[in-house]
Specification:
This protein is an alpha+beta fold. The protein is 37% helix and 26% strand. InterPro entries: CBASS_pafABC_assoc_protein, HTH_11, PafC-like, WCX_dom, WH-like_DNA-bd_sf, WH_DNA-bd_sf, WYL_dom.
Length: 315
């Protein structure tokens, strides 16, 4: 436990107690030596002006004094979240949103400064292969979501490069792997569809109220899918991984219903449910010779086909 963490823990202990607490008890609660307990008490009293008193039974707070530790205490994950949020806001700023966005960014900077991060730009979060949407598209999608209005969009299919005009009811906005996606009820297809924001060419807010889809229905639509793709689970992939070549894979989380089986000291077997295999194949490809698809046979065949297609480019 870090010193600053012990200071906040000690403050919490003293605020919750109505009687003095002994140094021996604090040694156990703060997970430290007696000398460290005395140093933490001295720091809280001398540097933070905490109203700490002591008697033969231990230390306690003077209840007549009003005291709170300054600032907002954040852990590493919360600090990282604020840094990522600040970067997302900066990336999505448009002319019309510059002032309100800046107010939010100033607030984030203030909180980070209380954590000791004076200049967040000294900490880099590099989004690999990011796909940024047009700021106007992002703003219109956000407005449609909040006002529960249908959206008219001109959408370009990524594979066929075809344009279609869609009327959609926005349901949820998702940031996934450095790209933004809109879950929406497509009134052309009469079903839930996923739209990549950078593929939306034109957008306008419709006058009609959006169709409502329950959270349970939306969750069920994506519950068994792998990655960003939807649909019920149809297959289970078996992927053998050499952990000598890719040791980090034992800590990776691929799917909420995955099962990891240790085969020997150098190999694990991943069981991963999926519907659409496009993202799964890409994730296995990144492991190179460290991974081998064992089942199902249809996935093995498609994997081999892609490997042959890649090889043909270099032949």
């Amino acid at each position: 436990m870090k010193k600053i963490d012990r200071i906040y823990v000690l403050d919490k202990i003293l605020k919750e107690r109505r009687t003095p607490i002994s140094v021996d008890a604090l040694k156990e609660r703060l997970e430290c030596s007696q000398a460290t307990v005395y140093r933490v008490i001295a720091t809280l009293r001398d540097e933070f002006n905490a109203p700490i008193n002591s008697d033969e039974n231990g230390v306690y707070y003077d209840r007549s004094a009003q005291f709170d530790l300054p600032g907002i205490r954040l852990n590493a994950e919360e600090t990282q979240g604020l840094l990522m949020a600040a970067q997302l806001l900066e990336d999505l700023q448009s002319d019309s949103l510059q002032k309100p966005m800046q107010r939010i960014l100033d607030g984030i900077d203030k909180v980070l400064q209380q954590k000791g991060i004076r200049n967040r730009r000294m900490i880099q979060i590099i989004p690999a292969l990011s796909r940024k949407p047009d700021p106007n598209v992002f703003q219109q999608v956000m407005t449609g979501l909040q006002q529960q209005k249908k959206l008219n969009i001109s959408y370009q299919n990524r594979q066929q490069q075809e344009h279609t005009e869609r009327l959609v009811s926005p349901l949820r906005l998702t940031s996934y792997r450095n790209a933004w996606y809109l879950d929406a009820w497509c009134h052309l297809r009469d079903d839930i569809r996923l739209f990549a924001l950078e593929q939306i060419q034109h957008i306008s807010i419709d006058v009609e109220q959006a169709r409502e889809v329950s959270t349970a229905e939306l969750r069920a639509h994506y519950a068994d899918s792998y990655g960003i793709f939807s649909g019920p689970m149809k297959h289970t992939a078996e992927i053998k991984i050499n952990t000598d070549m890719a040791p980090w894979t034992v800590f990776e989380h691929w799917h909420s219903q995955q099962h990891m089986e240790k085969l020997d000291g150098s190999h694990i077997l991943l069981h991963i449910p999926y519907n659409d295999n496009r993202e799964l194949i890409a994730d296995v490809m990144r492991l190179g010779p460290a991974a081998q698809v064992l089942a199902p046979e249809s996935l093995r065949k498609q994997f081999k086909t892609q490997l042959r297609d890649i090889q043909s480019v270099y032949d």
